[in-house]
Specification:
This protein is mainly α. It has 13 helices and 4 strands. Helix content is 73%, strand content 4%.
Length: 306
């Protein structure tokens, strides 16, 4: 009965507000989830430091604007570049030396990289929450039918679609993308064909981290509180989104992100009493999807690389 009461009390404008919020949150999850799925698609490993790369990108943007007084648009470009370089550095220091090691060793290294970034941020920036700088035209509220919707909510899906189109073009219509697809199929054959495996993997980490930076910037504007542990829960949810959609599949990661984002917001809208359990929604969806379709919604059965 509660859901029918909530629907009856909800105006069209109120539902539109929840829908816009759900789409914007799903778009953020999708952008960050792409990084997980790209790395897994090539290396068959989970980059557990990816959520913390999002956190570092937020700090890059924060200090670029507040400490160095760089214009926000230049700061955002610099943040994307710096975060892409951070992804490459992590790949070369934490993952490349263990490429031929057992998968458990790589997993431990990935978790260690995550803890390192969190504690490094805690040491350098302190654990005190910081407020992401306001970007006036993105942080402003737009009145629609009696409700206020933040302008960034309309920009997030547009930016996500643009990034997705560019990424799919790179993957499907460029030599770099062809090399990435070849490496994802078979290391040894790709190496015999003359493909530089190390460069391809570094480019993959750079692209995934750059998308994470775009997501981090929009996340900071939408949810302005920044802490060294900012990336833990979003990173976990985005990993779940990648698994739900079919990890290794870019479109699947986007689909999984939208499912989680919309689901979280609509649960709060229709079941206000369960708003404290919104984080549990992601885990419930994960269990149900894996129970009925272990490879995810758009995933394909793969064999382990040796």
């Amino acid at each position: 009965m509660e859901i029918f009461q909530a629907i009856a009390n909800m105006t069209a404008a109120g539902f539109a507000q929840h829908l816009v919020n759900g789409i914007s949150l799903g778009s953020l999850y999708a952008l960050i989830a792409i990084g997980y799925t790209m790395v897994y698609g090539i290396l068959l490993m989970i980059n557990f430091a990816h959520g913390d790369i999002v956190m570092m990108a937020c700090y890059f943007a924060f200090f670029g604007i507040t400490a160095f007084h760089i214009p926000w648009y230049l700061t955002f470009v610099g943040t994307i570049i710096a975060t892409a370089l951070l992804g490459v550095i992590i790949e070369r220091t934490a993952y490349r030396p263990l490429r031929d090691a057992p998968k458990n060793s790589v997993l431990i290294s990935a978790i260690g990289a995550s803890f390192l970034l969190e504690n490094l941020a805690n040491y350098l920036f302190s654990g005190r929450p910081m407020h992401f700088p306001d970007i006036p035209f993105l942080s402003s509220m737009i009145p629609i039918g009696g409700v206020q919707i933040q302008a960034i909510c309309f920009f997030i899906p547009v930016v996500t679609v643009i990034c997705l189109v560019l990424l799919l073009h790179i993957v499907n219509h460029t030599k770099t993308g062809m090399a990435m697809r070849a490496v994802s199929k078979d290391y040894e054959i790709a190496r015999v064909m003359g493909i530089n495996i190390d460069n391809v993997i570094s480019i993959t980490f750079a692209l995934g981290s750059a998308l994470a930076a775009v997501g981090a910037i929009m996340w900071g504007i939408r949810y302005p509180g920044i802490t060294p542990y900012l990336g833990v829960m979003p990173g976990l949810k985005c990993f779940i989104a990648a698994v739900v959609g079919g990890i290794g599949n870019i479109k699947g990661a986007v689909l999984g992100g939208f499912i989680l984002g919309l689901g979280e917001i609509l649960i709060v809208a229709f079941f206000p009493a369960f708003s404290g359990y919104r984080d549990a929604f992601a885990f419930i969806v994960l269990i149900l999807i894996l129970f009925y379709k272990p490879t995810g919604l758009l995933g394909e059965t793969t064999t382990e690389k040796v």
